Amino acid sequence: MDLDEYRKLAAVEDRMWYFHALNRRVVHWLRRLLPHGAATVLDAGCGTGGLIKRIREAAPDWRIVGLDFSPTACRLARERTGVDIREGSIVDLPFDANAFDAVVSADVVCQVDDGAGAIREFARVVRPGGAVLVNVPAYRWLWSYHDDTCHTRHRYTRGELVRHFRAAGLEVVYSTYANLFPLPLIAARRKLLRPSRATSDVRLYPAPIEATFRTLAALEWTWKKRGGALPAGSSVFVVGRRTARAG
Q: What pTM value is reported for the model?
């Protein structure tokens, strides 16, 4: 992403509806799959640290490590979280095999040309039986100014991401689209109501708009937290476990 986008992200990701919904489903599945007590989690592509902060609030006993390609993001993440943040690429992780109980990656696999290779790296560094959770933007037809600004390389379908998981030796535990109810509004914004200058949609919206989107996301969550999957949405979310042949 552009440097200005990282600064915007740091300013709004603790409050914007999108990150609230994304972090909630990541934390839910981490707590569901990881053992009680100590665990080690890698946030691969941690940005400015918003997800790390949310995970630490939910599980203070876990050790969390962050990684990002951008020196600016790493600096901001260190300032905001105080955890170990490494600079590096998700397609060549600077960690030993079997180093983590879980790897999470939120909207970063979409920013590299070799998404399948990134997921193989996640499978390599997670221990046998460990969890891998990935969120990416959905649908090539939804491509817009937002993707150009965020340096998106690819928008996925659920089937594509599931295939990458299985090819890496990850057993798919759960897969779904996300943000189904907001999808028409997001599509209208991206395709019909484009901003006058190139920018991303990462910003805090007026309170009524934020409240509307939070309500729509909460309605979805009542279904997804019980294991229900959605047939469409602006994001794809897949959860897997490493099998013996991974890595």
A: 0.95
